[in-house]
Design goal:
Helix 15 packs antiparallel against helix 18. The protein is mostly helical and 389 residues long. The protein is built from 18 helices and 4 strands. The longest helix is centred in the C-terminal third of the chain and has 36 residues. The chain has 2 domains: 225 residues, no CATH class; 144 residues, no CATH class.
Length: 389
């Protein structure tokens, strides 16, 4: 790619004006390559959706998601899709339309297409890894409130105004202030990845179609290519940072429970009733957490039965089991994601199978965590500890 032959089009992802701008520029300049801000997975999905090849009744493999402990990642993907689709529906423009328009124009002219973006799953996983607990909490709160916000407010937004330099700078600064971790992964890292993808194109004359929020960062990296970080560094999904104290504490707690039982047994203290208390409290909390989350009685029973085991085993979670059981009674299909766009009340949310299954997973785990961190220590292990010493 020759820097002087590069044209970067900054777009708004749900703007009809951006669609026309992209098509007109490609037809006018007729480059060697058209690069678009999509990864292969998103490009393939958008093309299939347009061709009507996506079956709304096709099941979503939520079972695998729960087993692989990717509920948070799936939740984030679903919510971001919901927000973008909601705005697009109000503006009568499907998200990603300008990228498809760029691909159509390129195919019409026989021009090569380059997919520039990082895999969406890597991006979202790195985003979650970078976000602090409070950032995630604020994101969750904002998401829940957005389900019930009025549509009129969205309709008043001038999407094209967001592409103006001053407005864009203000929006990006606010995003960075509210969630610096998410901003780093979603914007700064992808600026670097997109810039690397563009400069790796062998042909000379290139048009790159990207979100307006990335344009400045991409230009900065292309002007100073030595500052682009190693790609392996910004595609690694292993969480880095300081000592994971929360995980260490959660791993130590069940060990302490076992040690206290063992020491009490060696001391000759009768622990039969303490063990019974541990099992009963664990089972009750697992059952209550699941049933209060709206699960079937079968799912609540499973959550209760496995709760004592999952408390002792730090790699297991009772919510996985109750959630997997709930899946047998609530078939989650792709239309459930699309139906998120139509949610305007608690009843709509309650009738969505994705929400119901995830709620059972979270509710069960939350109740068992309360038992582990509060009820069991105060009712069982602290009194037993003082008997030992």
């Amino acid at each position: 790619m020759k820097r002087e032959c590069l044209t970067i089009i900054g777009t708004a992802h749900v703007s009809s004006d951006s669609v026309e701008e992209v098509k007109n520029t490609i037809y006018e300049l007729q480059p060697d390559v058209v690069g678009i801000e999509l990864d292969y997975g998103r490009y393939d999905r958008l093309m299939k959706e347009r061709a009507g090849l996506v079956d709304d009744e096709e099941p979503i493999h939520l079972k695998q998601i729960i087993k692989e402990n990717k509920v948070g990642l799936f939740f984030a993907t679903t919510i971001l899709s919901y927000i973008q689709n909601k705005i697009g529906a109000n503006l009568d423009v499907k998200p990603g339309s300008e990228m498809i328009a760029a691909a159509d124009a390129a195919n019409d002219l026989g021009i090569k297409i380059a997919l520039l973006d990082r895999d969406i799953n890597i991006t979202l996983q790195r985003t979650l890894n970078n976000m602090s607990f409070w950032e995630k909490l604020k994101f969750l709160f904002s998401t829940v409130t957005s389900f019930f916000s009025g549509e009129d407010e969205t309709e008043e937004i001038d999407i094209e105004e967001l592409k103006n330099e001053e407005t864009l700078e203000e929006v990006m600064e606010y995003f960075q202030e509210v969630s610096p971790g998410a901003y780093h992964a979603l914007v700064q890292e992808r600026d670097a990845y997109l810039a690397n993808s563009i400069q790796s194109i062998e042909e000379d004359k290139v048009i790159a179609v990207v979100g307006a929020g990335h344009q400045e960062g991409i230009n900065r990296y292309l002007d100073n290519p030595e500052t682009i970080p190693p790609i392996s560094e910004i595609t690694n999904t292993e969480k880095k940072g300081g000592i994971p104290w929360l995980k260490i504490i959660l791993a130590i707690i069940p060990i302490l429970f076992v040690v206290i039982f063992f020491l009490a047994f060696i001391k000759g203290i009768k622990i039969e009733w303490n063990i019974a208390e541990f099992i009963i409290i664990s089972m009750i909390m697992g059952f209550v957490g699941s049933i209060c989350s709206g699960s079937k009685i079968q799912s609540a029973l499973v959550g209760g039965v496995v709760a004592p085991l999952t408390i002792i085993h730090p790699l297991l979670a009772a919510g996985w089991f109750s959630g997997l059981t709930e899946l047998k009674y609530r078939k989650v299909r792709k239309k459930d994601i699309k139906n998120l766009n139509d949610i305007s009340s608690l009843r709509d949310l309650w009738n969505n199978n994705i929400f119901r299954v995830l709620l059972v997973v979270i509710g069960t785990n939350l109740a068992v965590s309360i038992a582990t961190l509060v009820i069991l220590p105060s009712q069982v292990f602290i009194p037993l500890f003082f008997k030992i010493f």
